């Protein structure tokens, strides 16, 4: 790992076999050693099943941020993780903040009430997601 910027990993739920592909930047501390991922669905599963029921495997290393982003996109695409019921992934990876910003700028209409929200985030908050 010497000289590497970060790594690509697959976290597996040992109870149901579902997986999550992500990236993690190496840091001077030790947080990366126990890091399982930050995906919303993955976090809900960790809360439900407990950290002890998850295993992380490092599958590749990146030399810089661009390399890491490209590798993450490659593996998520390779496993079709966003579209597969066998994975917790919700987005294509890579430059996640850019993709989330794009998703959060799309107006949303609630078909039941006709309410219009300026973003997915606002609609989710109205529905009670993202609080607490």
Question: Can you walk me through this structure?
Answer:
With 132 residues, the chain is α+β, with helices and mostly antiparallel strands. The protein has 5 helices and 5 strands. It has helices at residues 31-34, 40-49, 65-78, 96-103, 120-127; strands at 6-13, 19-25, 54-62, 108-109, 116-117. The strands form 2 sheets. It has a 3-stranded antiparallel β-sheet. It is globular and about 55 Å long.
Count the DSSP helices.
Answer: 5
Mean pLDDT: 85
User: What fraction of the residues are assigned to beta strands by DSSP?
Assistant: 15-25%
Order of helices and strands: EEHHEHHEEH
Number of strands: 5
Largest sheet: 3 strands, antiparallel
| Shape annotation | globular
Question: Which descriptors apply to this entry?
Answer:
single chain; 132 residues; alpha+beta; 3-stranded antiparallel beta sheet; two-stranded antiparallel sheet; 5 helices
Task: Provide a short characterization of the protein structure.
By secondary structure, the chain is an alpha+beta fold.
Element layout with pairings:
Elements: E1 6-13, E2 19-25, H1 31-34, H2 40-49, E3 54-62, H3 65-78, H4 96-103, E4 108-109, E5 116-117, H5 120-127
Antiparallel strand pairs: 1-2, 1-3, 4-5
